[in-house]
TrEMBL record:
PROSITE patterns: WD_REPEATS_2. It comes from Sesamum radiatum (Black benniseed). This is Transcription factor IIIC 90kDa subunit N-terminal domain-containing protein. It comes from the Eukaryota. PANTHER family: GENERAL TRANSCRIPTION FACTOR 3C POLYPEPTIDE 4, GENERAL TRANSCRIPTION FACTOR 3C POLYPEPTIDE 4 FAMILY. WD repeats lie at residues 305-353. Keywords: WD repeat. Residues 85-351 form the Transcription factor IIIC 90kDa subunit N-terminal domain.
Length: 682
């Protein structure tokens, strides 16, 4: 297994697999019993919590039959005692942009079969996250309108139904604690027993003699159904696992549509006990706001897939192919019989469909043996026998490859044991360079105890090709300590990860990239410099002969870069190259950086590049603000007094900035500043 660099000890033990997920906002959610703990991996302490409440069962119907029907095998799970408060069975983060504050939603599936969506408490200012939607209630309403796919249902609405609890002294022949509900009807025997399916609860209550009594509640206005119908309906509504797809919705030129467009959405897949997966299209809110507590997202059921013949236990999505204008997805599904299936999904049909469809899925491959990484090229799996495996997609088959075994500068914790007995879930970091594994350690002895922890492992050196040759510009003698192939894959994967963040629709969260570069910087600073210069060469061109020439000429090319690329340069220089510089001395050229392989002249060049990129970003921000104000004032329906009063102080600061940097700012910025100044005088 890969080497650990961070860990967080949790108070509760995991109960179900798929118990840890990592969001694009760099939050890690961990399911612990009846709660969900939310952590920040940079400082792994609990930052939020979701407490799962009890919920009322769905009113499915009344079982039409006698006492012998209550002893049918399919009702056995409902005779057994169960906790009053359900546990968390599965959790999954949505992509960024689906919550009201433009953040992520967290889907939570409980042992009661309920699936609900939660958001960050940006209005409530509390630790407890806020419920915004009950998807299970919507699934029940859909099945109710379709009569659960059944053709004949006995009606009891016209009958006078009286339900009574039998005396506590009554026991059936098999001595099982069975409660009967008697229907008084002229057309039926007076002692016929029936129970309200899924609308009654058996709660064991021990009396002073140790006998078990039962408390039964029922709804009289329910249809009569058979035992088999009850079992089938319960399985259809019993959700077991959840997973969000990548964002769907593109413009005609293949660029991701901004978050406020109506077809910017994600597909929430919910796997059930019946082997069926329901797919819900959830749109981003039309308007983002931190003042409104309501969820204004549009939700539609768009697909039902019969994926397995047994319980669905795991689901995971990945983007397939590079043509975002015609999105295709990969859906990996696992079931309780040990099978894993890989499906191709037509994302365009799910995006445009106005009704529930079943033919947008094609089986790609079934393997036995779940989180996707590296743009759907790699699949990670773990199991409760403590196995952790890596797979790469080659054509129509998955091939196992070695796990990354070498990592940059390691960080260990003496409080957490490294040897564990079971793995209960895994999640890949936003940049795909690290993975979080939820593990359980069983301590045997006089008292059998459980200890849980989240292990953060590096996967940046993951091999993504079965036959890979050596990279010509990697000299292993210059970067000792790690095998050449490991260095090659770390370089390729870090450059790929940086390239993914050039997309402006993706939230700028490069925590794992920065952490990996800093870890390498401790043992191989020349290797870090090699990667960064190669990355900058992709921006500025390869016509420069050496690093000094590249850094000295880079500022001339900054106006041609996108704002996202400038932000990336700024973050990498501040948090990696000039990490040792203090913030208040960042503008000084006299800083000396310990542990770097660069010369003092190179340090000054990096500093010049940082300041130039910041000035370019500031000038773009000022120009955009000026243009926005002038555009608002040109609109006759906007009150110029309101615009001026609301932004007067900020305008003056921006005008002063343009005046102080008159020699460096562009003529267009000066023109806008002068035009805004005239408006202020008016």
């Amino acid at each position: 297994m890969s080497s650990r660099f961070q860990s967080a000890v949790l108070g509760s033990s995991p109960v179900y697999p798929s118990a840890v997920v990592w969001s694009d906002e760099n939050l890690v959610a961990v399911a612990c019993g009846s709660t969900v703990s939310i952590l920040n991996p940079g400082n792994p302490v609990v930052r939020g919590v979701i407490t799962i409440p009890s919920s009322e069962p769905f009113p499915l119907g009344v079982i039409d039959g006698g006492e012998e029907d209550l002893l049918h095998g399919c009702l056995l799970p409902f005779h057994l005692s169960r906790d009053a408060r359900p546990c968390v069975r599965s959790i999954s983060w949505s992509p960024v942009g689906l919550a009201n504050n433009a953040g992520c939603l967290l889907a939570v599936c409980t042992t009661g079969g309920r699936v609900k969506l939660y958001r960050f408490p940006f209005c409530e200012f509390s630790v407890e996250w806020i419920e915004v939607m009950d998807v299970s209630e919507m699934l029940y309403n859909y099945f109710k309108t379709t009569s659960f796919g059944e053709s004949h249902i006995i009606s009891s609405e016209s009958s006078d139904v009286t339900l009574r609890r039998e005396s506590a002294d009554h026991e059936c022949a098999s001595d099982l604690p069975v409660s009967s509900l008697v229907k008084d009807c002229k057309r039926r025997k007076p002692n016929a027993a029936s129970v309200a399916a899924q609308d009654w609860q058996i709660i064991p209550v021990s009396d002073r003699f140790g006998k078990t009594q039962e408390k039964v509640t029922a709804d009289c206005n329910l249809p009569l159904i058979t035992v088999q119908q009850y079992a089938s309906r319960s399985a259809m509504l019993m959700s077991l696992t959840v997973a969000w797809s990548p964002i769907l919705g593109t413009s005609g030129n293949g660029v991701a549509i901004p978050h406020n467009y109506s077809n910017y959405c994600s597909i929430l897949a919910i796997g059930g006990k019946c082997g069926r997966i329901s797919l819900w299209r959830i749109h981003a809110p039309e308007i983002y706001s931190i003042d409104s507590a309501k969820c204004s997202s549009k939700v539609s059921l768009v697909g039902l897939l019969k994926a397995h013949d047994t319980w669905i236990t795991a689901i995971n999505w990945a983007q397939y192919g590079s043509d975002v204008s015609k999105p295709h997805l990969l859906l990996a599904t696992g079931s309780s019989d040990g099978r894993v299936k890989i499906w191709r999904v037509n994302g365009e049909e799910l995006l445009m469909s106005s009704e529930v469809i079943n033919d947008s899925f094609s089986l790609l491959k079934e393997v036995t043996g779940l989180a996707w990484a590296f743009d759907g090229r790699c699949l990670y799996s773990c199991s409760q026998d403590n196995s952790f495996k890596s797979w790469i997609l080659v054509g129509n088959s998955l091939c196992e490859v070695p796990n990354p075994s070498h990592s940059p500068g390691l960080k260990s914790s003496p409080d957490v044991p490294y040897v564990f007995d079971s793995c209960f879930g895994l999640a890949v970091s936003p940049g795909n360079l690290a993975i979080a594994v939820y593990c359980l350690n069983i301590c045997h002895g006089i008292s059998r105890t459980h200890r849980a922890a989240v292990e953060f492992l590096w996967i940046g050196g993951q091999q993504l090709d079965i036959s890979s040759g050596a990279c010509p510009d990697i000299d292993n003698e210059s970067f000792p300590g790690l095998p050449e192939k490991v260095l090659i894959w770390w370089e390729c994967n870090m450059l790929w990860s940086l390239g993914q963040y050039e997309n402006p629709s993706r939230i700028l969260n490069i925590w794992d990239i920065v952490a990996a570069l800093l870890a390498f910087k401790q043992s191989a600073p020349e290797y870090v410099e090699h990667i960064l210069l190669k990355w900058l060469t992709s921006y500025f061109g390869s016509q420069f002969g050496n690093s000094m020439t590249l850094l000295s000429e880079a500022f001339k090319f900054l106006p041609k870069l996108s704002s996202r690329q400038l932000h990336l340069i700024n973050i990498i220089i501040r948090h990696v190259v000039l990490k040792e510089c203090k913030a208040d001395h960042m503008s000084s050229k006299q800083q000396e950086l310990k542990g770097l392989s660069v010369t003092k002249d190179q340090v000054n060049l990096w500093m010049e590049l940082l300041l130039s990129s910041e000035n370019e970003l500031l000038e773009r921000l000022v120009g955009f603000s000026f243009s926005a104000i002038l555009s608002l004032l040109s609109n006759s329906s906007v009150d110029s007094f309101e615009v001026g009063c609301g932004s007067l102080d900020g305008l003056r600061q921006m005008e002063q900035w343009v005046s102080h940097n008159e020699k460096n700012v562009k003529d267009h910025s000066k023109f806008l500043a002068a035009k805004v100044g005239k408006v202020e005088k008016r």
